[in-house]
Structure formats: C-alpha cells, structure tokens
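Annex B. Sample input.
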Amino acid sequence: MSKFNLVSALSVIILVTSTLSVASDDKQNKEFTFMDRDMWFELPQSEIETRSETYTLTTLKAEKSVKPNQRLYLWIGEPAWPNNGDAMVVKGLTKSGDVWYLDTPEALFVDRSRITMRGMDGDFVAELVNLATEKYQQVVLITLDVGAVPVLRGLRKWQEQADAELRNRFKNLVLLYPSLFVNAPVAGEVPELYPITSNSALPITILQPEQGAQSNTIGLSERTLKMGGSLVNTIQVPIATDGYFKYQDIKPMAADAAKRIPEVVDQKIALLNKLKYQVARMDPVELTPPESKIIAGMVKLDKPKQMQSFSLKALEGQQIRVPEDYKGKALLVNFWATWCPHCVEEIPSMNRALDHLDEDRFAMISVSYKDTQEIMEEFVKEVKVDFPILMDYDGKVSEDWKVFAYPSSFLIDANGRIRYAINSGSIWDSQEMLGYLREVMQIPYKPE
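Annex B, continued. Sample output.
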C-alpha cells in the first residue's frame, strides 16, 4: 500500500471512530424523558414457568463477582410503561443479584389502569415468589405506587402455603412511594387504606420521595402496616419527587435508586438476623376490598367547614396571613408544586379567571408544596403567575389541610367557610369553573 493510500485509510478510520465516539457521547449525555424507552427495549426477556402459568419477564443476570443464585430482585411493575429510568435501575441492581422484572399490564394482558391494578388478587405474585424462593437464597421484592396493593395480597397468599424454609428466604419488600389508599379522597378528607395493609406481616422498607405528594401521609401507611405485624421502616429520599427515577432528573435519580435499594436490603437483612425475625405463616383470611373509583371534579361539601388559618412567607418575602389579610373576600386556595405537570398546566387559566372576577370580593392564593426559593424564582421566569405564591417549605400547612394529591384547591367564602374542594387540575376560566367561583364570591360577608 502506498504512503498516500495508507494515510487516507488511517484518516477514514480516525473519522469513523471519531463519529462513533461523538454519537456515543451524545447518547451518554442525552437527558432522558418519561417517554424514552430505547434502553428498556434492549434488555433481554425470558419465559418463566411457575406451577400453573408462564410469564414473560425482563431478566438480567448478576455480575460474575456475585455468587450464583444468592439474591434475586423480583420487580413487579406498576401501570406506567417501564422506561429508561427503570432500565438504569435494574441494570445497576445486577451488581448484587439477578433481576426479574414483570411489566405487569403487558405480561397479564390487562389495561394500564391504576384501578385495574388495585383490583388484582395477587395470585401471580404468589406464584412468582414461590418459584423465586425455591431457586434463590435471598428474595427481594420491589414494587411501586399502586403495585403495592396486589403485591401485599399475593404475598399474604404465598405466606398461607409456603413452608418455613422458603418463607425465610424472603428478605425484604421494597415499596417505592406506595399508594395503599382506596381512592384519592375529596381534598381535605382523611384517605381510606386497603384492608390488606393491616393484614400483612413482612419485612418492609418504604422509599418515599421527600418532595412526593404522599410524603405527609406515608406515616399513616407505615403505622397501619405495623398493625399487622410487619417490620417496617421508611426512608425519605432527598430531592426526589413523585416518580423518583421515572419522571425528572432520570439519570441521577436512577443512579441513586440503584445504589440505595441494595443498601436498604443489606440493612434489613442485618436487622432480621439480629432480631431473629421469622416471616410468619399466615392463616387464610377473607378481605373484601372496598371499591376503588376516581374522585374527580369539583365536590360540594355537605356541611361547609371553617378553614384553618395559616401564615407563610410569599415568594417576594412578605409574611401573609390567611384569611386575616383577605377580610371580606372569597378565596381560591390552591396547593401545588412545580414538579406537578397538571399544577403548572392550570396556572394560565387561573390567571385568566381573575379577569372575570371582582378583585374587591375575590382573591387567589397558591401554596407551593416544598419547592425551594431557588426553584420557584426560576419557575416564575418562565411561567407567569398573577397571584401570590406562598412558600410551604416544609409541607406543614399542606399536611394540616390534609392535602393528598396535587393540585388540590379549596373554594372558601368571605366568612372563611370551605364550600367546595377539588383534587385535580382544572380549566378555571371555563364557564363551569367560573360558575363555582362566582357562586362562592356572591355569598355575603358577615363580619363578627
């Protein structure tokens, strides 16, 4: 080969290598969104046969340094599609064990509905756990959100028939932001938990995003699980919001989950050994679950109740007292967070609704749930907000108002009585919503 041809060939190789490297770097540096699933589709799948069914699972083998058949992470997916966040977490878990991931709706041929998942009897969970404990020395079950309901049911059924050796191979149930409530209640009401919550006796670790919607109510779930004999602890995950590694900051949050889950499992196993904790055999029990339904739209309170007063600093720094600083005015008090898409979507319509109302008789107030000053200052540069933003930094006011879902809003007459509540986003300048706002605004003010 001539010197010229050799140089040309080397140039082509360098160019191709450089191009591939840039493409690889671009993929590495790409910010993932909830819709990105390319990494997930690259993961291998296997047919897993239980005693009565065959399930298609995403399966990953542990790294070579891990002892074979030592630990299995059995992941029961929730209604949402698994995405690149899930892929990054399960790949990270292979540093300490094998992984079986069941995309529950896909594998069981059911719709991706929260109500559907809440209604599942959990038989598939019992079958998979039975097979897993036959094959592995340590079985860790992981699920998210409403997946906690059928998982607890299935584990209860498994405990009714598994022998002591298999039961004690079950080491931890890791619940990521579990939703064990029957429904999202009417805003301001106490939610109802599924009966299985107080009829479970398992080693459980809850990982609750610190800024998630249920961080104020997770203590109720923990206490109810303990009533049944479960060994439960809750760990608040700093910075994370609802979805943890699935929605925002996917890469750093997935890295956090992949590291945090094995750590909490090791801690739980050490505690089980110290306490000589045995996973109990359970007697059969008939639990009739209440009907799960979606409570949406504006709800009129049968008996108007007096609002709780509160005082918070506004984004600009001034202290605002509610309702003292709004005497004689009807109020829309809106609880929200910048990470909540529906919260953000309704803000423009709230701005527009104000143009249709008498500012001497009506005011809007928003209470920001656990957002920081820095986050909110950046937010208002992008989104116009025409009403005060009160900063509930620690979430205490939201907790006192029993806010369960975001956004949640309350319509309050000029005398401080809550007339209506809604626990979802809305188009506030629609004729329907303006009708509610005007109705409350027109209730006469009766000073004491």
